[in-house]
Design goal:
single chain; 66% helix; globular; mainly alpha
């Protein structure tokens, strides 16, 4: 499964608290400090300006298992 424009729109439609929670979960999957995900405005701006193709290229670089976890976290079916 890949990130789609619809998945990005769904994320962008979430309020800041929901979006921050998603980013904290993604940061944990990547082994990052969850505080790195605290800047919701920055992540929202990144999502608004990034295509699904660009996100999928990034996901392909981190490996299948982590990419599947992230896609599941953002609301996709990673099976």
């Amino acid at each position: 499964m890949e990130v789609t424009q619809e998945m990005i729109r769904t994320l962008l439609g979430q309020n800041d608290a929901e979006l921050q929670k998603k980013f904290a979960e993604i940061a944990a999957i990547l082994g990052m400090n969850e505080r790195a995900a605290a800047n919701t405005a920055k992540f929202r701006n990144m999502l608004e300006n990034t295509s699904p193709e660009e996100l999928n290229r990034l996901l392909s670089a981190i490996g299948t298992e982590r990419a599947s976890e992230i896609i599941h976290t953002i609301g996709g079916d990673a099976t």
